[in-house]
Amino acid sequence: GAVVSQHPSWVICKSGTSVKIECRSLDFQATTMFWYRQFPKQSLMLMATSNEGSKATYEQGVEKDKFLINHASLTLSTLTVTSAHPEDSSFYICSARRAGDYEQYFGPGTRLTVT
Amino acid sequence: AQKITQTQPGMFVQEKEAVTLDCTYDTSDQSYGLFWYKQPSSGEMIFLIYQGSYDEQNATEGRYSLNFQKARKSANLVISASQLGDSAMYFCAMRERRAAGGTSYGKLTFGQGTILTVHP
Q1: What is the DSSP letter of A75?
Q2: How far apart are CA B69 and CA B111, in angstroms?
Q3: Contact B103 A42 (CB under 8 A)
Q4: Which of B1, B16, B59, B88 is a plausible cystine mate for B66, CB 3.0–4.6 Å?
């Protein structure tokens, strides 16, 4: 149990376009979802935390107008990278947590390349 | 503020030997949790082991054990009998627990990671 999926697993887009990444909890209800960004051989950096039905809480330095996060249901959160630039190329990982649970379950990640 | 430090950018170990990956943390909270994750080249984050700050015994999960030294604020991961498939990046992470009596948990903060290479 506790499976988190992400779609797509990889995406290439042109500079200036927007791309949406989906994160789904397949067999549990995720009251909280997290979005991370990871550059090669570096650590995971938390971008934002979202609770179902509420606005996401963004970490300092993360542009909320550029990285739009929606957590509309207990099983789905989306991250939209708007007006993508090559420097947005990265590995994006989502994570989900049940209410009252200490453990977070991670998705397989999405590799974004902006050309 | 929380801080997790992994001082070993890379570690090498011979197959079947044990290896210790270091992790120190800094927090003023009394209640917190410590995690270790494995990230192979595919990118998925694999949960390995968890230690709560009030747990008196060191956590163990199969070949993984966590050497928890609270006074020194260290939470080292010990992998026994290393296997070739253990080659990956390993992250230590910490999360605080929110206000007393609350059931919500804070965010997970990760260390810089250690790349482990197991040689045959």
Answers
A1: T
A2: 17
A3: no
A4: B59
